[in-house]
Amino acid sequence: MASVPPPSESTTPPLVDIKPLLQQLWPGGHPHVTPERIAEAIAHFFTNQVTDAQAASLLICLHFTTLDLQADVLAECARVMRLAAAQIDVPALNEVIKLKNRAGGKYRGGLCDIVGTGGDSHNTFNISTTASIIASSLLLVSKHGNRASTSKSGSADLINNMRPRAPSSRP
């Protein structure tokens, strides 16, 4: 897992004003707001081009208009999230897996993933990340996660503070 820190002030693109979209959505929603327009606004979250207040306002509008439950809106937002995600060099990854030759028993030697719930607001121990480290002694484990949102540390915080450093998936 690799976490990419937010861009520095000098590389942050200019802010985008999504207020016109917010005004169309609130109060009561607007039947002509397309999933693509909503997803375009969501895409700006990943480049830090909207303020926290506007991001929160959009999420609140989507919730109270129930657009956050619409399959077409969810699908389009998932599409832009996947576009913003770090891309993995699959051929290089497959080569590393093949070289490890960890197959044994019913385990074929591929990647395992251990995920936790995160964001539970209960300040619980980060067991999924710890379990992935322990399991990695026998299995090839791919761990993903994020920085803390409701506690003192998330998966990315823990792994990025370990030595040796986890490699970045971005150049």
Automatic annotation (TrEMBL):
Query: Which stretches make up the Glycosyl transferase family domain?
Result: 111-161
Q: Pfam families per the record?
A: Glycos_trans_3N, Glycos_transf_3
Q: Which residues form the Glycosyl transferase family 3 N-terminal domain?
A: 19-82
Q: Which keywords fit this entry according to its UniProt record? A: Glycosyltransferase, Transferase
- Domain of life, per UniProt, equals Eukaryota
One CC-aspect GO term: cytosol
What GO molecular functions are on record for this protein?
anthranilate phosphoribosyltransferase activity
Name the Gene Ontology biological process terms: L-tryptophan biosynthetic process
Q: Which Gene3D superfamilies match?
A: Nucleoside phosphorylase/phosphoribosyltransferase catalytic domain (3.40.1030.10), Transferase, Pyrimidine Nucleoside Phosphorylase, Chain C (1.20.970.10)
Region feature Disordered, mapped onto this chain: 147-171
Q: What is this protein called?
A: Anthranilate phosphoribosyltransferase
Could you read off the lineage of the organism from its UniProt record? Eukaryota, Fungi, Dikarya, Ascomycota, Pezizomycotina
